[in-house]
Design goal:
single chain, alpha/beta, Purple Acid Phosphatase, chain A, domain 2, eight-stranded mixed sheet, six-stranded mixed sheet, 26% helix, 25% strand, globular
Length: 370
Protein backbone atom coordinates (compact mmCIF):
# COMPACT_ATOMS: atom_id res chain seq x y z
CA UNK A 1 0.00 0.00 0.00
CA UNK A 2 1.46 3.32 -0.94
CA UNK A 3 1.65 6.42 1.22
CA UNK A 4 -1.28 8.09 -0.44
CA UNK A 5 -3.60 5.19 0.26
CA UNK A 6 -2.55 5.00 3.90
CA UNK A 7 -3.23 8.69 4.30
CA UNK A 8 -6.77 8.26 2.94
CA UNK A 9 -7.47 5.33 5.25
CA UNK A 10 -6.24 7.25 8.27
CA UNK A 11 -8.46 10.22 7.44
CA UNK A 12 -11.49 7.96 7.05
CA UNK A 13 -10.80 6.35 10.41
CA UNK A 14 -10.53 9.72 12.15
CA UNK A 15 -13.81 10.88 10.58
CA UNK A 16 -15.56 7.67 11.69
CA UNK A 17 -14.32 8.16 15.26
CA UNK A 18 -15.57 11.78 15.32
CA UNK A 19 -19.01 10.75 14.11
CA UNK A 20 -19.23 8.02 16.77
CA UNK A 21 -18.32 10.47 19.54
CA UNK A 22 -20.98 12.94 18.33
CA UNK A 23 -23.63 10.22 18.27
CA UNK A 24 -22.84 9.19 21.84
CA UNK A 25 -23.02 12.79 23.05
CA UNK A 26 -26.51 13.23 21.58
CA UNK A 27 -27.79 10.14 23.40
CA UNK A 28 -26.35 10.71 26.88
CA UNK A 29 -29.37 12.65 28.31
CA UNK A 30 -27.69 16.03 28.03
CA UNK A 31 -29.24 19.17 26.62
CA UNK A 32 -29.69 22.86 27.32
CA UNK A 33 -30.34 24.25 30.78
CA UNK A 34 -33.94 25.09 29.72
CA UNK A 35 -34.70 21.39 29.30
CA UNK A 36 -33.76 20.51 32.87
CA UNK A 37 -36.74 19.63 35.17
CA UNK A 38 -37.58 22.33 37.82
CA UNK A 39 -36.18 21.73 41.29
CA UNK A 40 -38.66 20.29 43.85
CA UNK A 41 -40.71 22.90 45.89
CA UNK A 42 -39.44 23.34 49.41
CA UNK A 43 -41.81 22.07 52.10
CA UNK A 44 -43.09 24.78 54.50
CA UNK A 45 -41.25 25.02 57.73
CA UNK A 46 -42.60 25.67 61.20
CA UNK A 47 -41.16 29.16 61.14
CA UNK A 48 -43.35 30.32 58.22
CA UNK A 49 -46.18 32.77 59.23
CA UNK A 50 -49.71 31.58 58.25
CA UNK A 51 -51.99 33.93 56.34
CA UNK A 52 -54.15 36.03 58.69
CA UNK A 53 -57.84 35.05 59.03
CA UNK A 54 -60.31 37.43 57.39
CA UNK A 55 -61.69 40.01 59.85
CA UNK A 56 -65.08 39.38 61.48
CA UNK A 57 -67.87 41.43 59.86
CA UNK A 58 -69.13 44.25 62.08
CA UNK A 59 -72.41 43.51 63.89
CA UNK A 60 -75.67 44.73 62.41
CA UNK A 61 -77.23 47.12 64.94
CA UNK A 62 -80.55 48.81 64.20
CA UNK A 63 -83.39 50.37 66.17
CA UNK A 64 -87.11 49.73 65.77
CA UNK A 65 -89.75 52.15 67.01
CA UNK A 66 -93.43 51.61 67.83
CA UNK A 67 -96.32 53.76 68.97
CA UNK A 68 -100.02 53.07 69.45
CA UNK A 69 -103.34 54.10 67.93
CA UNK A 70 -103.60 57.13 65.66
CA UNK A 71 -106.48 58.88 63.94
CA UNK A 72 -107.27 62.43 62.87
CA UNK A 73 -110.83 62.75 64.04
CA UNK A 74 -112.62 66.03 64.85
CA UNK A 75 -110.25 68.83 65.89
CA UNK A 76 -107.19 66.58 65.42
CA UNK A 77 -107.73 66.97 61.66
CA UNK A 78 -106.18 70.43 61.92
CA UNK A 79 -102.74 68.75 62.03
CA UNK A 80 -103.28 67.63 58.44
CA UNK A 81 -103.45 71.25 57.32
CA UNK A 82 -100.38 72.52 59.13
CA UNK A 83 -97.25 73.10 57.08
CA UNK A 84 -94.18 72.56 59.25
CA UNK A 85 -91.63 70.37 57.52
CA UNK A 86 -89.29 70.58 60.51
CA UNK A 87 -91.82 69.37 63.08
CA UNK A 88 -95.07 68.20 61.43
CA UNK A 89 -96.31 66.75 64.74
CA UNK A 90 -94.57 69.15 67.09
CA UNK A 91 -91.89 68.05 69.57
CA UNK A 92 -92.84 64.37 69.38
CA UNK A 93 -91.58 64.36 65.77
CA UNK A 94 -88.01 63.79 66.97
CA UNK A 95 -89.04 60.57 68.75
CA UNK A 96 -90.72 59.28 65.59
CA UNK A 97 -87.78 60.10 63.34
CA UNK A 98 -85.08 58.59 65.55
CA UNK A 99 -85.54 54.82 64.92
CA UNK A 100 -84.36 53.12 61.76
CA UNK A 101 -87.88 51.77 61.30
CA UNK A 102 -90.91 53.40 62.93
CA UNK A 103 -94.38 51.77 63.00
CA UNK A 104 -97.84 52.87 64.21
CA UNK A 105 -101.46 51.73 64.02
CA UNK A 106 -103.67 53.96 61.84
CA UNK A 107 -107.12 53.39 63.27
CA UNK A 108 -109.41 54.97 60.71
CA UNK A 109 -110.78 54.55 57.22
CA UNK A 110 -109.12 56.71 54.57
CA UNK A 111 -112.19 57.87 52.72
CA UNK A 112 -114.40 60.85 51.98
CA UNK A 113 -117.39 58.81 50.77
CA UNK A 114 -119.22 55.71 51.85
CA UNK A 115 -121.72 55.20 54.65
CA UNK A 116 -120.74 54.76 58.31
CA UNK A 117 -121.08 51.26 59.66
CA UNK A 118 -123.71 50.68 62.41
CA UNK A 119 -121.26 51.18 65.27
CA UNK A 120 -120.97 53.52 68.23
CA UNK A 121 -117.79 55.12 66.88
CA UNK A 122 -116.74 55.48 63.26
CA UNK A 123 -113.56 57.22 62.13
CA UNK A 124 -112.32 58.43 58.78
CA UNK A 125 -109.65 60.74 57.44
CA UNK A 126 -108.16 61.90 54.14
CA UNK A 127 -105.10 60.53 52.30
CA UNK A 128 -103.21 63.49 53.79
CA UNK A 129 -102.90 61.41 56.95
CA UNK A 130 -100.40 59.11 55.23
CA UNK A 131 -98.44 62.11 53.96
CA UNK A 132 -98.27 63.62 57.45
CA UNK A 133 -97.14 60.37 59.05
CA UNK A 134 -94.45 59.86 56.42
CA UNK A 135 -93.18 63.42 56.90
CA UNK A 136 -93.11 62.85 60.67
CA UNK A 137 -90.80 59.82 60.47
CA UNK A 138 -93.23 56.88 60.31
CA UNK A 139 -91.98 54.13 57.98
CA UNK A 140 -94.77 51.54 58.02
CA UNK A 141 -98.41 51.51 59.16
CA UNK A 142 -100.82 48.73 60.13
CA UNK A 143 -104.53 49.11 59.45
CA UNK A 144 -105.58 45.71 60.80
CA UNK A 145 -107.94 47.12 63.42
CA UNK A 146 -111.62 47.66 64.22
CA UNK A 147 -111.88 51.02 62.42
CA UNK A 148 -110.09 50.41 59.12
CA UNK A 149 -113.39 49.68 57.34
CA UNK A 150 -115.70 52.06 59.19
CA UNK A 151 -117.24 53.41 55.96
CA UNK A 152 -118.28 50.16 54.33
CA UNK A 153 -117.21 48.58 51.08
CA UNK A 154 -117.11 51.91 49.27
CA UNK A 155 -114.90 53.42 51.97
CA UNK A 156 -112.70 50.31 51.87
CA UNK A 157 -112.15 50.74 48.14
CA UNK A 158 -111.17 54.37 48.73
CA UNK A 159 -108.82 53.28 51.50
CA UNK A 160 -107.05 50.75 49.29
CA UNK A 161 -106.72 53.33 46.51
CA UNK A 162 -105.20 55.83 48.94
CA UNK A 163 -102.73 53.20 50.11
CA UNK A 164 -101.75 52.33 46.52
CA UNK A 165 -101.03 55.98 45.77
CA UNK A 166 -99.60 56.85 49.16
CA UNK A 167 -96.09 57.37 50.49
CA UNK A 168 -96.11 54.60 53.11
CA UNK A 169 -96.28 50.81 53.09
CA UNK A 170 -99.45 49.65 54.88
CA UNK A 171 -99.91 46.12 56.23
CA UNK A 172 -102.89 44.22 57.61
CA UNK A 173 -105.33 45.25 54.87
CA UNK A 174 -105.65 44.39 51.21
CA UNK A 175 -107.74 43.39 48.20
CA UNK A 176 -107.75 39.75 49.35
CA UNK A 177 -106.55 37.59 52.22
CA UNK A 178 -103.13 36.93 50.70
CA UNK A 179 -102.41 40.64 50.41
CA UNK A 180 -103.83 41.40 53.87
CA UNK A 181 -101.54 38.86 55.52
CA UNK A 182 -98.50 39.74 53.39
CA UNK A 183 -95.63 41.33 55.34
CA UNK A 184 -93.80 44.50 54.56
CA UNK A 185 -90.18 43.48 53.91
CA UNK A 186 -87.12 45.68 54.21
CA UNK A 187 -83.39 45.40 54.74
CA UNK A 188 -81.69 47.88 57.06
CA UNK A 189 -77.93 47.81 57.71
CA UNK A 190 -77.72 44.14 56.83
CA UNK A 191 -80.79 43.05 58.83
CA UNK A 192 -83.74 41.71 56.83
CA UNK A 193 -87.13 42.47 58.38
CA UNK A 194 -90.68 41.15 57.84
CA UNK A 195 -93.50 43.19 59.41
CA UNK A 196 -97.07 41.86 59.76
CA UNK A 197 -100.28 43.57 60.87
CA UNK A 198 -103.20 41.55 62.28
CA UNK A 199 -106.43 42.20 64.16
CA UNK A 200 -107.34 39.80 66.95
CA UNK A 201 -110.54 41.53 68.07
CA UNK A 202 -113.79 39.52 67.70
CA UNK A 203 -116.02 42.48 66.84
CA UNK A 204 -118.01 44.08 64.00
CA UNK A 205 -115.15 44.83 61.61
CA UNK A 206 -113.59 41.38 62.03
CA UNK A 207 -116.94 39.72 61.32
CA UNK A 208 -117.95 41.84 58.30
CA UNK A 209 -114.63 42.88 56.78
CA UNK A 210 -112.17 40.06 57.29
CA UNK A 211 -110.31 39.61 54.01
CA UNK A 212 -111.07 36.40 52.10
CA UNK A 213 -109.75 34.73 48.98
CA UNK A 214 -112.10 36.86 46.88
CA UNK A 215 -112.97 39.95 48.94
CA UNK A 216 -111.02 42.90 50.29
CA UNK A 217 -110.65 43.47 54.01
CA UNK A 218 -108.32 43.31 56.98
CA UNK A 219 -106.14 40.48 58.27
CA UNK A 220 -108.03 38.78 61.12
CA UNK A 221 -106.72 36.10 63.48
CA UNK A 222 -108.89 35.85 66.59
CA UNK A 223 -106.86 32.90 67.86
CA UNK A 224 -103.46 31.66 66.65
CA UNK A 225 -104.20 31.38 62.95
CA UNK A 226 -102.62 28.82 60.64
CA UNK A 227 -102.09 31.36 57.86
CA UNK A 228 -100.42 33.83 60.23
CA UNK A 229 -98.25 31.25 61.97
CA UNK A 230 -97.18 29.75 58.64
CA UNK A 231 -96.23 33.20 57.32
CA UNK A 232 -94.22 33.92 60.46
CA UNK A 233 -92.41 30.58 60.18
CA UNK A 234 -91.52 31.22 56.54
CA UNK A 235 -90.12 34.64 57.37
CA UNK A 236 -88.15 33.21 60.28
CA UNK A 237 -86.75 30.38 58.16
CA UNK A 238 -85.69 32.96 55.57
CA UNK A 239 -83.57 34.61 58.26
CA UNK A 240 -85.74 37.70 58.71
CA UNK A 241 -86.30 39.61 61.91
CA UNK A 242 -90.05 39.02 62.33
CA UNK A 243 -92.35 41.73 63.72
CA UNK A 244 -96.09 41.20 64.35
CA UNK A 245 -98.25 44.20 65.28
CA UNK A 246 -101.63 43.10 66.68
CA UNK A 247 -104.86 44.88 67.53
CA UNK A 248 -106.01 43.02 70.64
CA UNK A 249 -106.83 43.06 74.35
CA UNK A 250 -109.64 44.38 76.51
CA UNK A 251 -110.30 48.09 76.62
CA UNK A 252 -108.99 49.95 79.68
CA UNK A 253 -107.34 46.82 81.13
CA UNK A 254 -103.65 47.20 81.94
CA UNK A 255 -103.08 43.43 82.20
CA UNK A 256 -102.92 41.26 79.09
CA UNK A 257 -105.90 38.91 78.81
CA UNK A 258 -105.57 35.13 78.24
CA UNK A 259 -106.14 35.46 74.47
CA UNK A 260 -103.26 37.93 74.17
CA UNK A 261 -100.96 35.66 76.14
CA UNK A 262 -101.89 32.57 74.08
CA UNK A 263 -101.29 34.47 70.87
CA UNK A 264 -97.94 35.81 72.07
CA UNK A 265 -96.73 32.32 73.04
CA UNK A 266 -97.84 30.83 69.71
CA UNK A 267 -96.12 33.59 67.73
CA UNK A 268 -92.96 33.21 69.79
CA UNK A 269 -92.85 29.47 69.07
CA UNK A 270 -93.41 30.17 65.37
CA UNK A 271 -90.35 32.44 65.26
CA UNK A 272 -91.60 35.98 65.90
CA UNK A 273 -88.89 38.22 67.32
CA UNK A 274 -91.12 41.18 68.20
CA UNK A 275 -94.83 41.14 69.12
CA UNK A 276 -96.43 44.51 69.82
CA UNK A 277 -100.03 45.63 70.04
CA UNK A 278 -102.64 48.24 70.79
CA UNK A 279 -106.41 48.72 71.23
CA UNK A 280 -106.87 48.83 75.02
CA UNK A 281 -106.46 52.67 75.09
CA UNK A 282 -104.05 52.22 78.01
CA UNK A 283 -100.48 51.02 78.37
CA UNK A 284 -99.89 47.34 79.11
CA UNK A 285 -96.83 45.38 80.19
CA UNK A 286 -93.75 44.92 78.02
CA UNK A 287 -90.68 42.72 78.20
CA UNK A 288 -89.27 39.41 76.99
CA UNK A 289 -91.02 36.10 76.49
CA UNK A 290 -87.90 33.95 76.19
CA UNK A 291 -86.03 35.63 73.33
CA UNK A 292 -89.18 37.26 71.89
CA UNK A 293 -89.90 40.84 72.83
CA UNK A 294 -93.58 41.49 73.63
CA UNK A 295 -95.30 44.82 74.27
CA UNK A 296 -98.93 43.99 74.93
CA UNK A 297 -100.37 47.47 74.72
CA UNK A 298 -99.07 50.83 73.46
CA UNK A 299 -102.25 52.82 74.19
CA UNK A 300 -103.57 55.73 72.12
CA UNK A 301 -100.96 58.00 70.60
CA UNK A 302 -102.72 60.67 68.51
CA UNK A 303 -106.34 60.78 69.68
CA UNK A 304 -109.26 63.15 69.78
CA UNK A 305 -109.42 63.23 73.59
CA UNK A 306 -106.93 63.04 76.43
CA UNK A 307 -109.03 61.19 79.00
CA UNK A 308 -106.27 58.55 79.23
CA UNK A 309 -103.23 60.59 78.24
CA UNK A 310 -100.38 58.22 79.19
CA UNK A 311 -98.63 56.97 76.09
CA UNK A 312 -95.16 56.93 74.52
CA UNK A 313 -92.75 55.65 71.90
CA UNK A 314 -91.11 52.27 72.40
CA UNK A 315 -87.68 51.75 70.83
CA UNK A 316 -85.89 48.41 70.55
CA UNK A 317 -82.19 47.93 69.91
CA UNK A 318 -81.58 44.93 67.65
CA UNK A 319 -78.12 43.39 67.35
CA UNK A 320 -77.57 40.75 64.66
CA UNK A 321 -81.29 39.99 64.56
CA UNK A 322 -81.87 39.79 68.33
CA UNK A 323 -83.61 42.34 70.51
CA UNK A 324 -81.06 43.20 73.18
CA UNK A 325 -82.47 46.36 74.76
CA UNK A 326 -85.73 48.24 75.12
CA UNK A 327 -86.33 51.87 75.93
CA UNK A 328 -89.62 53.63 76.55
CA UNK A 329 -90.03 57.35 75.89
CA UNK A 330 -93.11 58.45 77.88
CA UNK A 331 -95.35 61.12 76.41
CA UNK A 332 -98.63 62.73 77.42
CA UNK A 333 -101.52 63.37 75.02
CA UNK A 334 -102.50 67.04 74.99
CA UNK A 335 -105.90 68.62 74.33
CA UNK A 336 -104.72 69.09 70.73
CA UNK A 337 -104.70 65.31 70.36
CA UNK A 338 -100.92 65.08 69.88
CA UNK A 339 -98.57 63.95 72.69
CA UNK A 340 -95.67 65.83 74.23
CA UNK A 341 -92.53 64.16 75.63
CA UNK A 342 -92.51 64.09 79.42
CA UNK A 343 -89.66 65.78 81.27
CA UNK A 344 -87.93 65.79 84.65
CA UNK A 345 -89.51 64.01 87.60
CA UNK A 346 -92.72 63.51 85.63
CA UNK A 347 -90.73 61.40 83.16
CA UNK A 348 -89.08 59.42 85.97
CA UNK A 349 -92.47 58.66 87.53
CA UNK A 350 -93.90 57.63 84.17
CA UNK A 351 -91.03 55.21 83.53
CA UNK A 352 -91.45 53.67 86.97
CA UNK A 353 -95.17 53.16 86.30
CA UNK A 354 -94.42 51.62 82.90
CA UNK A 355 -91.98 49.14 84.43
CA UNK A 356 -94.57 48.16 87.03
CA UNK A 357 -97.04 47.10 84.32
CA UNK A 358 -94.85 44.09 83.60
CA UNK A 359 -95.88 42.49 86.90
CA UNK A 360 -99.07 40.87 85.55
CA UNK A 361 -97.74 40.15 82.06
CA UNK A 362 -95.60 37.07 82.61
CA UNK A 363 -92.73 38.84 80.86
CA UNK A 364 -89.17 39.42 82.04
CA UNK A 365 -87.08 42.62 81.97
CA UNK A 366 -84.25 40.87 80.10
CA UNK A 367 -84.08 38.32 77.26
CA UNK A 368 -83.58 34.66 78.05
CA UNK A 369 -83.03 31.54 75.96
CA UNK A 370 -84.40 28.03 76.61
Amino acid sequence: MDVTQRTRNTAALVLALLLAVGLLASCDGGGSDNDDPPPPRAAPTATQTPEPAPPEPPPSVITLGFAGDIHFERHVAQWLERVDARRPLGPVTELLRAPDLMMVNLETAIATGGQPEPKQYTFRTSPAALDLLAASGVDVVTMANNHGADYGRSGLRETLAAIDGGPLPVVGIGPDIEAAFAPYRAEIAGTSISVFGVSSRPEHTAKRFAATETTAGIAVAIEPHRRLLSAVRRADEAGDLVVVYLHWGQQHRTCADPRQQRMARALSRAGADVVVGSHAHVLQGAGWLGSTYVAYGLADFIWYHNYRPDTGVLTLRVRDGEVVRHRFHPTLIQSSGVPLPRQGQDRVDALRAWDALRGCSGLTPFPSTP
